[in-house]
Amino acid sequence: MERITIDPITRLEGHGKIEIFLDKKGNVENAYLQIPELRGFEQFSIGRPAEEMPRITNRICGVCPEAHHMAATKALDALFDVEPAPVVKKLRELFYSSFYVTDHSVHFYALGGPDFILGPDSDPAERNILGVIHKVGVDIGIQVIECRKRNHEVIKILGGRAIHPVAGLPGGWSRAMTKEEQKTILGWAKENVDFALFTLKIFDDIVLANQAYVDLIVSDAFTHETYYMGTVDEKNQINFYDGLIRVTGPDGKEFVKYPAKDYAKHIAERVEPWSYLKFPYLKDVGWKGFVDGVDSGVYCATPLSRFNAADGMATPKAQEHFERFYETLGSTKSNGRYSPIHHRLATHWARIIELLYAAERMQELVEDPEITDPNVRPIITNTPTEGIGSVEAPRGTLTHHYKTDENGILTDVNLIVGTTNNNAPIAMSIKKAAKGLIKNGEVSEGLLNTIEMAFRNYDPCMSCATHSLPGQMPLEIQIHDADGNLIVTQSQYID
Amino acid sequence: MTESGKPKLAMYWGASCGGCEISVINIHEHILVVDEIFDIVFFPCIADFKYHHVESYPDKHIDVCLFNGAIRNSENEEMAHLLRKKSKVLVAYGSCAYEGCIPALSNLTTKDATFNKVYFDNPSIDNPDRILPQTSTDMPEGTLTLPTFYHTVKSLDQVVDVDYYLPGCPPEPPQIWAVLQVIVGGLLEGKPLPPAGAIVGAGTTALCDECEREIQEKSIDRFYRPYQLDPDPDQCLLEQGIICMGIATRSGCGALCPTVGMGCRGCYGPPEGVIDQGAKMLSAIASVINAGDETMEDDELEHVIQEVIDTIPDPAGTFYRFSMAHSILRRVKNGKGDS
User: Fold this and answer.
1) What distance lies between CA A159 and its chain's CA centroid?
2) For residue A206, what is the DSSP state?
3) Mean pLDDT calculated for residue range A2-30
4) Residue A33 pairs with which residues in a beta bridge?
5) In whole numbers, what is the pLDDT of chain B averaged over residues?
6) I need a surface site. Which of A61, A232, A433, B193 has the fewest CB within 10 A?
C-alpha cells in the first residue's frame, strides 16, 4: 500500500506526524495523526512541593504557559481549601484576559494568515508569517507586533515574566497592581478592543468576502458532528477563568454540566499503541472509535466548542459578533440557544470573536476600583490534601489534579491538557480531509498543506506579526464532498 | 527556493515547550530585521519546511541553528545529529538544550514509572488491556513507528558538539537580540565571534548582582514556603527564609522573579566558574543558616543545622530545578543502562 508521510506537521506548537495510506486506486484507505513525544510531567512532578506547580507546569507549553500557571494556581486554591479574595480573582482574570488577547491574535495571524492570505497551495518557503509581511507590507504587521508587545508587558507586570510567569500562589497572587499600572493597562485594554475589531474587519474582508474560502469552510471535508465542551458562567456565557464545565451534544442539547472537581466522573482517556498522546472521551457516552455522532464519546474543546457549548458572550460587542457568527453560518435559534455549527474551519472566526471578548473583559476588570487592593498575598496555614483546578486554555478545557501529603509534597498528579481533549477530533479531521481531498493518487504539496489545515484550526501555532490587506486573494481551489471530483491545485512547490 | 545570498537561519525544538520560539518572537519589532538579514530554512513552529528539506541541504548549509529543547527521545537525538551536520554554528538555545531544564526532573524518576503513571495509573485512564505506545505497530494498512522514549533526559551537548549556549527558560528578548547581532556581525562583517563553547546572552556573576533587594548578611532560623510568609518587598528573599536560587544562578534576566516577590529557581544555570548549581546552592544555604554559637558542641551544631535544612522541602528538585541533566548527578541511579 502506498503511503504519504507529512513529517513534521508545521505551524503549530509541538511535534506531530501524519501518515496517509492509499489503496490501489490511489484513494485514502486511512490516515493517522501520530504524536511522537512524551515528557512525563505527571510523574516527575511527584515529590515536588505543590506550590511549585504553577512554575513547573507552565513548562508544558511555552505558548500558553499562562493557562497552566492559572490551572495550577486554582488547583492550589482547592488543595489548600482557600477561597481567593475578590481582588485576587480579578487580578488573575485580568492577567488571563490579556494573555488571551495576545494568544488568540497570534494564532489568527500566524495560522489564518499564511493559509488564507497566501493560499493553501502557495510556495511553502513563503507560506509563513514573514511571507505574509512580504505580501501585505509591514504596517499591519507592526500593529500585530504592538499588540503582542503591550500584552506581554501586562503579563510581565502582573505575572513577573512575559513567558513562564511566577505570581500564582494558593489563594493569592505574589504582587498587587499599583494605580499607575492600572492606568497604563486600561489604555492598553482599550487599544486591544480596537485591535480585535480591526482583526474582525480583516477576517470579513479576506475570508468572508471570498466565496472560495466560504465554500472551503462549509465543505463536508472540514465538518464533524461531535460533542462540544466549554466553561460557562451562571448565565451559560463563556468564561475563560472560572465556571462550570458544560458539554453539549451534536444536536445542540446540554448533555451535562459539572464542576471541574468532577472531571474524572465524566472524562476517560484511552491509549493507542501508535501515539504517545492519549485520547479522552465522554465516559457516559463511551468510546466507539474515531467517529462522529451522538453515540460517540468523542468531544471537542476549542473556541468553536466553547461557542457551541455556551448560550452567548458576557460582553456587548462580542455578543453582537457571536450572534452574527451563527446567523451568517445558517444556524437557527430556539429556546435562547443557537443550533451548533460543526464546520471546523469556522474555529478561526470564533477565535477572533473570543479575542474581542477577552479585550472587553480586560477593560471591565481593569476599570474595577477594587483591583488595586494591595492585600493579595494571604498567609496560608491549612493542611493540603487534594485539589482540582481548571480553566479554559485557548486550546480547550485544562484540568490539573493534585494530591499531596500533609506537608504539601505531591503524591499524585493528573493533567488533562487543552489539546489532549482534541486528539481524537483532530485525528478524525485529518482523515476526513485526506479522504475528501486525495483522489486517484494525485497529490501535490499544496493539497497536503490543505490537509494540514484540518489540524491547524484546532491547535494553532504561535508566531509573530502581521496580517493582510483585502483583495486579490488566491484560490482556485475547489473542494467537493468526499465522493466528489478531484481537487486541482497548482503547486509551485519545488523540492 | 531562491538563493538570496543571505545567511540561513534554522530554529528547531527537541523536547521543549515552544517558549523558546515565543521568546524569539518576543524580540518584537526586531523580528522584521531578522527577516531582512536571514533566510529561514527550517522552523517547524512557524514555517512549512519538512525533515526531507533539511536532509536535502548540503552539509553546513545552515549558517545558524538555534536548537532548543532537551534530548528526550531518539527523534530528538537524530535531529540533533542532522542539524549539527547541516549547520555552521549550532547554538544550544534555552535551558532545555543547555542543561535539561524542568523536563530533566525526569532523571529523578524512571521511564517505567513515567509510563506507569501516564498510561496505567491515574484517575482518568481507561486502559484495561494495558496498552503502551510502541515504537512499531502493525496496523491493517501498514506499520506505524514512534521514536524511542529515552530513559534519561540529556542536554544537547551530551549528544553533539555545541558552539554556543544561550541560557534561560526562556532567554530574555534583549539578550537574544544582542546575541543575534553578534552572530550577524561575524557572518556578514567578519567581526570576531565568541570563542567556541561560550555562554552567550547572559552575565557572568550571580543573579544577586542585578537584584534590587537589599542584602543585610542576616542569618535565619528556618525556611518558609512562599505561602507561609508575605515577604518584605525590599529585603533579600533568602535572608527572609524564602528559597531563592539567585546566589547560585547566572545573571542576565534582570532578577525578574525576586522583583515580584518569588524566589529565583535558577533557569539561567550556574554563574561563570561554577560547575554544579545544586552544590553551589547547598553551600550558599549553609552560609545563611543561623548556626548557633561557639559554645555548641559539634553534634549539637550539626543537629541545629539539620533542623533548619529540614524546613526545605525537596532540595534536589529545587536546587537542580533546571540543571539536572548537566549536573554532577545527571540522574538517580536505577540499575539500568542508559536510553
Assistant:
1) 21
2) I
3) 88
4) A18
5) 92
6) B193
H/E stretch holding A389 reads strand A386-393
What is the least distance, in Å, from the CA of A138 to any CA of chain B? Answer: 8
- Tell me, yes or no, if A148 comes closer than 8 A to chain B by beta carbon: yes
Residue among A161, A169, A177 with most chain B CBs within 10 A, to mutate: A161
- Integer-rounded Cα radius of gyration of chain B: 23
Q: With a threshold of 0.90, tell me whether the complex ipTM lies above it.
A: yes
Contact between chains at B45 and A142 (C-beta distance less than 8 A): no
Looking at residue A117, its pLDDT comes to: 78
Look at residue A464 and tell me whether its pLDDT is greater than 70.
no
pTM: predicted TM-score of the whole model, two decimal places: 0.93
Q: What residues in B contact A128, CB-CB < 8 Å? A: 40, 43, 46-48
Interchain CB distance below 8 Å, B226 and A61? no
The residue whose grid cell reads 527577516 is B35
Q: For residues A217 and A188, what is the distance between their CA atoms, to the nearest angstrom?
A: 33
Query: pLDDT tens digits, residue range A375-433?
Result: 999 999 999 999 999 999 999 999 999 999 999 999 999 999 888 899 999 999 999 99
Distance linking the first and last C-alpha atoms of chain B = 38
Using an 8 Å CB-CB cutoff, list chain B residues near A181: none
The three grid cell numbers given for residue A324, joined into one nine-digit string:
452574527
Phi, psi dihedral angles at A257 (to 5 degrees): -140, 125
Closest CA to A463 of B68, B169, B25: B25
Residue of chain A minimizing CA distance to B75: A36
Q: Enumerate the H helices of chain B as residue ranges.
A: 19-25, 30-37, 51-56, 74-86, 94-99, 111-115, 173-189, 256-259, 277-288, 298-309, 315-319
Residue B300 has a pLDDT of 84
pLDDT computed for residue A112 by the predictor: 65
Choose among A228, A226, A231, A295: nearest CA to A258.
A231
What residues of A are in contact with residue B324 (Cβ under 8 Å)?
none
- pLDDT (tens digit, 9 = 90+) per residue, A339-384? 999 999 999 999 999 999 999 999 999 999 999 999 999 999 999 9
Question: How many whole angstroms separate alpha carbon B66 and alpha carbon B164?
Answer: 10
Q: Give B262's contacts in chain A (Cβ within 8 Å).
A: 55, 160, 166-167, 174
Cα distance between residue A429 and residue A281, in whole Å: 16
Chain A residues inside the 8 Å CB shell of B139:
30, 32, 274
| B124/A39 touch (CB, cutoff 8 Å), yes or no | no
> Which are the contacts of B298, defined by CB distance < 8 A and separation ≥ 6?
none
Buried b (16+ CB within 10 A) or exposed e, B206-240: bbbebbebeeeeeebeebbbbbebbbeeeebbbbb
